[in-house]
Amino acid sequence: MIDTDLIATENRRRAEDLRRDYDALGQQLDRRGVDIEAVKAKVAGYGVAIPSWGVGTGGTRFARFPGPGEPRDVFDKLDDCGVIHQLTGATPSVSLHIPWDKADPARLRDKAAAVGLRFDAMNSNTFQDHAGQALSYRHGSLSHTDAAVRRQAVEHNLECIEIGRAIGSRALTVWVGDGSNFPGQTDLSAQFERYLDAMGAIYDGLPSDWRLFTEHKMYEPAFYSTVVQDWGSNLMIAQHLGERAYCLVDLGHHAPNANIEMIVARLIHAGKLGGFHFNDSKYGDDDLDTGAIDPYRLFLVFNELVIAEGRADFAPAHMLDQSHNVTDPIESLMLSAIEVQRAYAQALLVDRQALAGYQQDNDALMATATLKQAFRTDVDPILAMARTERGAAVDPVAAYRASGYRAAVAETRPAVSGAGGGIV
Amino acid sequence: MIDTDLIATENRRRAEDLRRDYDALGQQLDRRGVDIEAVKAKVAGYGVAIPSWGVGTGGTRFARFPGPGEPRDVFDKLDDCGVIHQLTGATPSVSLHIPWDKADPARLRDKAAAVGLRFDAMNSNTFQDHAGQALSYRHGSLSHTDAAVRRQAVEHNLECIEIGRAIGSRALTVWVGDGSNFPGQTDLSAQFERYLDAMGAIYDGLPSDWRLFTEHKMYEPAFYSTVVQDWGSNLMIAQHLGERAYCLVDLGHHAPNANIEMIVARLIHAGKLGGFHFNDSKYGDDDLDTGAIDPYRLFLVFNELVIAEGRADFAPAHMLDQSHNVTDPIESLMLSAIEVQRAYAQALLVDRQALAGYQQDNDALMATATLKQAFRTDVDPILAMARTERGAAVDPVAAYRASGYRAAVAETRPAVSGAGGGIV
Amino acid sequence: MIDTDLIATENRRRAEDLRRDYDALGQQLDRRGVDIEAVKAKVAGYGVAIPSWGVGTGGTRFARFPGPGEPRDVFDKLDDCGVIHQLTGATPSVSLHIPWDKADPARLRDKAAAVGLRFDAMNSNTFQDHAGQALSYRHGSLSHTDAAVRRQAVEHNLECIEIGRAIGSRALTVWVGDGSNFPGQTDLSAQFERYLDAMGAIYDGLPSDWRLFTEHKMYEPAFYSTVVQDWGSNLMIAQHLGERAYCLVDLGHHAPNANIEMIVARLIHAGKLGGFHFNDSKYGDDDLDTGAIDPYRLFLVFNELVIAEGRADFAPAHMLDQSHNVTDPIESLMLSAIEVQRAYAQALLVDRQALAGYQQDNDALMATATLKQAFRTDVDPILAMARTERGAAVDPVAAYRASGYRAAVAETRPAVSGAGGGIV
Amino acid sequence: MIDTDLIATENRRRAEDLRRDYDALGQQLDRRGVDIEAVKAKVAGYGVAIPSWGVGTGGTRFARFPGPGEPRDVFDKLDDCGVIHQLTGATPSVSLHIPWDKADPARLRDKAAAVGLRFDAMNSNTFQDHAGQALSYRHGSLSHTDAAVRRQAVEHNLECIEIGRAIGSRALTVWVGDGSNFPGQTDLSAQFERYLDAMGAIYDGLPSDWRLFTEHKMYEPAFYSTVVQDWGSNLMIAQHLGERAYCLVDLGHHAPNANIEMIVARLIHAGKLGGFHFNDSKYGDDDLDTGAIDPYRLFLVFNELVIAEGRADFAPAHMLDQSHNVTDPIESLMLSAIEVQRAYAQALLVDRQALAGYQQDNDALMATATLKQAFRTDVDPILAMARTERGAAVDPVAAYRASGYRAAVAETRPAVSGAGGGIV
């Protein structure tokens, strides 16, 4: 963990400027009828989960270029996640991936407690073959033509639930790579039915206080068809399984030009929005840092979430899911968590009453200007003030770099050599 | 109509070559275990509807360049449609658009009977303002914020049903342009709810032996959001309305790269595939001639339809829906109807038993090769033989050109001058 | 024009708040080493041209819904453009489209002077057929297979130059719809060569102090191929024609997911960036208001322009080019001009020295954070202060609405009824 | 290699049917004025290169699922390539990737001669870090900010040329992954200039009888910008370097909806089309089997190539470049080579004279119908006859499976366990 004195010292250097900016913003918002303290309180209460695998350097099928101090196991990952939460105050939980993060539950609970974290949704993995696995997922997992493979995949998911129960998780996220690379390779309908059957068996094993999240994706790793290719199929799945089944939206898993905030609105309308994997993309499932490419789109998603706040049973799970190929993952995750908070804060600033009036009157210009005014408000002082008040860093990246954490862990974690991705 | 002697003469000139090609193909198919006569019989029994508006020259928002002999009204359109069916034998019905095609029902029935056609689904129009209309659809129709506008739009649809009953139609197709051009212009969820309410009122007025088709479209004329933007929303609508509500798939209304045949398979699985608007596209809703850009994609759609043939209550409506900007619409519609037949015939050739085996064994290469073998079979002799046997033309375009039909109607139908589209 | 007293009164009501926000921002920027006055001066010196056709309500191929007070001719359009510049101070010039705006040059000059405007680039129109035109552009214009049609199109462009010379324009923009709707319809190479030949004849007629802009577009109105489909073809054209030929970039004319700022950088590198048609898009050439969909993308384009500022012969022309289908065009154009200024102001705030260091060190995180810091700065007070200091409105839309301009012109300009677009 | 008796036996079983189909097709083509023997001769003279890396199972960043008998080194790969050529007669050359295929040149030459192959273009690799490499390519190679990294990358390319000279290659293909994942990460123009400089140094080292191919790609592995992102940048590079520099087109490297055959036509017009990497794609750089997704698009590319046949200095290099994730790579490469031949044969069937007439007359319908007639002709008998006449297999996959080659090599080549791709 980072020395709290260092954080405090860093914060003190920025305190006066922050106070001045915060007050100026507070006055401006007050004129707009917004109480800056109320916004700050909501932001301070907001958290987004970190995926355990996010703290390692990612890669592509062409190559992976590891950095210094790559985490060796789930305990190293929890250390890194602890640092992120310590400096941002925005990431109170961690989502594990099985079997990558398999370990003794008691040790996991102890470690998480030690670094101030709790466990979010469990993630199963049937898109890779693992050491000691009896049957291969080369040709699919939950939708495989061979019932034995499907059974193996179901049992793996049930095991994930078991592990999750032991460490306090309350949800299972299922993403599969099942699909096909050629027209005709699979019977599209039969494959979907096999998937539904297998998911039904998992749902049957779901504890009554858990939720099941299924995740759609247009393509990759399958390049002609994917069994859960879009939110329409995902909705059919959630409807088929039952009331504790929900749809998960990964921002990078859609067709070019898709209106994602509209998909979010539809799933809310259907009562089936389970949660998010936040990231950003320009081309495909690029898994870039949240808000890096199109921050207005992220704001528009949060605009829908703020509209839905307070609906019965509306409690979507929020997680980052990114691939950090050229940055220090800890730095990227810190800034991404802040980008999510920023979008939330901006969405809270929207003058809802004025907007409703413009919408009713079909005053498109003033309606969109109302959103824009909220979006272009620089809410950085609110986010920074929320951080400093809870002992996190005003400038998390500066504090992190000043701490020397990366160099320190690189001393004990052995260097990893670069490696080709899937193509070699 | 075209002189039947002319058709017979044209056909006689091609009879010997056609017989030779048909026999050679028959032998080849026989080796593959396929009875060419059975395929020909299915093709001969297949028909696709013509949209009345398709026989006029189309245009873009930039311009429209009419040709000679543009139809003046619905009766001219029925004449043109009659010619298409006479020469192809593949287009036994016409779909009307109200108010464009409003006319005395008795005269419509008589005219249709005279040209050998019947009436397919009715189409309502609430995406334009019409002469004498009380309220404008500028800001929406069935989902407008003003209840009076919604009521006007509902009543227009009910009137379409009334007209349809009088002329023997059995279905109503609803496509609206409702949506928004700016983030925030509409409350995405509230707009959807208003749409559902209004559609509910239309559904309530649907005769018990009618079907209601709703059509999704990603964008255009609305360029930020569209109330029925994709098949997911469309499915929610059909589920909401009831068992006689179905989803209509226009091949050009999807996101870039979308796997359309998979959407078809999912809607079949949900029991909600209502029918098709056939056309082709490279970029957006280009409304190009069916099969003009990607004939294999069309084949893959028909592959799903052939798989589903014989399912209970499976009777999707087939219609062409194209914009003919640079060709004679009659010629384009004839060739497009034949392209649809071609895809159907090719899909019938797939060796289903072999394919199922390859799929079960995950032999992706042979599975896709099985589809490819069917697709690359030149089924032209089957289609031409089916035509000649029913008195239609072996080469419809040649017969049409030989007939001088276009020049003849241009004598009585006045020339239309070119005009700008929406931008001027 | 708007009563200047009204503007002054409106501005006085907002003066105190504006001063407070401007001073707070000035202090914040001062800490970042930025002189707010220098930024304001650059913004105040910046202008973007208005297209004359932009002040009329636009439409789609499906419909056009005119509003009250549609301009009847170019003189009405100049009135509307004068109001836009009066209230924003950001749009000092107007771009005419021939033959839509054909009129006596002396009267045009006088009118422009009267409303405080000058004339920007001339636009030719060979994508529509005009009354009295000898040959049709149905199958192309500058690239038509018929030399007589090409000659007619060339002569029209030469006439545009003549008109432009008479009113003080210095550039010709050529956009054509030429292309094809079917594979094989044209010989792609021969069509390009015919286009190059015809453009060569236009270039030969270009005055020595003029520039020639060619505009690429992926598709629409042609839906299979377009003769100037992308910046690569556009570059080949500019290279072929000569040193006064440049490429024009319309933000909405690219493939899905294209990195437009990179295209801008490449054209700058080639010395061939001629200028912009600003707008925004989510799907295709949506012609939405600039910055309405992805304001960060607009900022990234201006980031490239600020980098290139001061290069020899670097003087790109800036114009708005939008279709206002659901808003008052005057309002949309005012806000869009301000959005362009906003992106420019934000790009001026980028800490270039810090950024260069991060780039050199491959510190991707801090490099992108440097851009983000500039982007999220709310520069509204700078833009508003620049406006008020020149007598324009602090809040142009509020002043415009208070003025009653639209209602006033609707008294004298007759109502236009709604009309179908290209499809009917 | 495969036992020639086995091939002969297999062929004999199919000889009679093949002869019958060939004759029937010959008669049909004769009626269309086409000499089937001439077409067969051109097809028989056509070859496409195999990439050495294509014979190993590919993968994605998520996983790789190796099959039995994965090649251990370049000599195993040459064995596999030899089998492909033996059975198809269509793949006379192999393209090596350095350092993956580094080996003693004399042994390489001997091995190639033994299996009946020659060497095509050399491929350098600066998108991965290799064992023993001094500097990392994590942040770029030929365009890196550090001159030492650029120099290392240049020297690697020069070494590739040296190796190529020793084994009889005559071309170097350069593809780099350089780009950025974040706006601002790189100075887009400066990065391009560094790339041009480095490529200039490689070009300086190019033997006078060699060609240099640069390959553009929209994205992946860089997800915000790529230094050679499209054909426009690629053209600028080839123009900058000199007359032996050409652009390489990989069919999967373009934006969604791009008209690839038009890009081909433009590069031919510029005299800069260097060659192809053939594959197919539905979403991104999917690297699926050639013709698997959109066979008509492949035909349209070959249509442009046939038009350009015979132009001075027109000799594009043809290579397959695919990732075989779920099929036996040998089988996929055999069928893909045949798909390329098929598209070529179909393009040869186009009635050029009729087409030119329709194009001149703007008869779009008949022009596109002329292409379609050629495309839908089942040329399989021509391809099979060409194969059998040279001792290759009428049905290569059947012969391959009958031979037991895969099982045989799996005996000597050790099993490879499944592995995660870049993400773990």
TrEMBL record, chains A, B, C, D:
Metal-binding as a keyword? Answer: yes
| Pfam families in the cross-refs | AP_endonuc_2 (PF01261)
Under the heading InterPro entries, the entry gives: L-rhamnose_isomerase (IPR050337), L_rhamnose_iso (IPR013451), Xyl_isomerase-like_sf (IPR036237), Xyl_isomerase-like_TIM-brl (IPR013022)
Domain Xylose isomerase-like TIM barrel residues, every copy: 96-302
Keyword NADP carried by entry: no
Q: Which UniProt keywords apply?
A: Isomerase, Manganese, Metal-binding
The molecule here is called L-rhamnose catabolism isomerase
Q: What's the source species for this entry?
A: Halovulum marinum
- What lineage is on file? Bacteria, Pseudomonadati, Pseudomonadota, Alphaproteobacteria, Rhodobacterales
